[in-house]
Amino acid sequence: MRPETLARALRRYDRAPHLVFWETTKACSLACRHCRASAQTRALPGELSTQEGFEFIEQLADIDGATPILILTGGDCFARPDLDTMIAYARERGIRVGVSPSVTEQLTRERLARLYEMGVRSISLSLDGSGPQSHDGIRGIVGHFDQTVEAILMTRDLGFRVQVNTTVMERNATELADVATLLVSLGVPIWEVFFLVGVGRGIDVREISPQDAEDICHFLVDVTRWGLTVRTVEAPFFRRVQAERAATGDGNPSEHFDLGPLYSTLRARLGDQPPAVVRATPSHSLATGDGRGVVFVGYDGAVHASGFLPIELGNVRETSIGEIYATNELLTALRSGELSGACAECRFRQLCGGSRARAYARSGRVLGEDPLCVKSEWAQRQRLRIR
């Protein structure tokens, strides 16, 4: 990202968020081992009512500056009975809407076709392995992998812009090349890779190491040559890797960077040459981060910097989302880059900024360094211990 483009984006994010995620409900019939939301089979008391949902949407429409994109998530957003009503109201107010449902019996062709007619164009589905053994084991339902592949094909054929989300953890890190190959074969244009943060049920799931995270980021830069647009969640240091790779040209990254065995494994399984029929996709991502261009509204109206950062900043039942985003002290500190540790000294501080959710989960310091980045002091100490 060019410096002037980055500066414009950061100025815009000071005024208004680019993405607003609304956890419409905690209800979900799945039992995913890493679920951020610790979703339940039934909706929890205190969910925003239909009327309160309308009022929240009005708040979004009234934000000064660019109107944010509203992403409806959960739990399973399709488990909320009035979801279509909310979407219709948001579309009437000129708000772009994306949906992130779970793959369940409620994800039907008829319902998806109806949402498309209402103007929804973006949908994200989760795929956490390259086959049934890994994906079904993580998602907790036998046969869910095949159902997910069918859902991806169905949404693609209906005309949606399909994004596939994959959460990276120790148990599936070596499968990423196979997942990428599968997505290319399915015609998926966007791959969003979530780097696990130990919150919700994910607290009991083993995260990857800083070296493996670095290896994966370099691998993801390579993946863009296969026609996939790659984005990351809670791994903004991917943008640092992108910038460093761009500065060294298209040569072998192992000649310029200290990469580990995971990179070699993933790169070898991806293959030497991209498919000739696939156009290379520029590797790019927005310079967003927790509370910087992104904000999360919980099922009960509580506002957070992200869905992985459990610090309540206000509630849309009492204060408008626009006011909370613009004036909350923690959010303004995040956007101004008041960081500590290695993140404070890093020359990629504005482009990256580290995962604030992981910093908080690991150390209790929201503005502390991101321990998953290889440049963090924590990672450097770990490396010395290993040696």
What would you say this structure looks like, in words?
- It contains 15 helices and ten strands.
- Strands 1, 2, 3, 4, 5, 6, 7, 8, 9 and 10 form a ten-stranded mixed β-sheet that branches.
- It folds into two domains: 287 residues, Alpha-Beta Barrel (TIM Barrel), CATH 3.20.20; 50 residues, no CATH class.
- By secondary structure, the protein is an alpha/beta fold.
- α8 links the parallel β6 and β7.
- The two termini are 36 Å apart.
For the sheet with most strands, the description reads: 10 strands, mixed
Radius of gyration from the alpha-carbon trace, in angstroms? 20 Å
Taking pLDDT < 50 over at least 5 consecutive residues as the criterion, the unreliable ranges are none
Strand content: 5-15%
What is the CATH architecture assignment of the largest domain?
Alpha-Beta Barrel
In the CATH hierarchy, what is the superfamily of the largest domain? Answer: Aldolase class I
CATH topology of the largest domain: TIM Barrel
Tally of helical runs: 15
Tell me the series of helices and strands, N- to C-terminal. HEHEHEHEHHEHEHEHHEEEHHHHH
- Percent helix, as a range, is 25-40%
Mean pLDDT: 89
Q: So what's the CATH class of the largest domain?
A: Alpha Beta
Return the domain count.
2
Please state the structural category: alpha/beta
User: Could you tell me how far the N terminus lies from the C terminus, measured between alpha carbons in angstroms?
Assistant: 36 Å
What is the 3D shape? globular
- Total beta-strand segments: 10
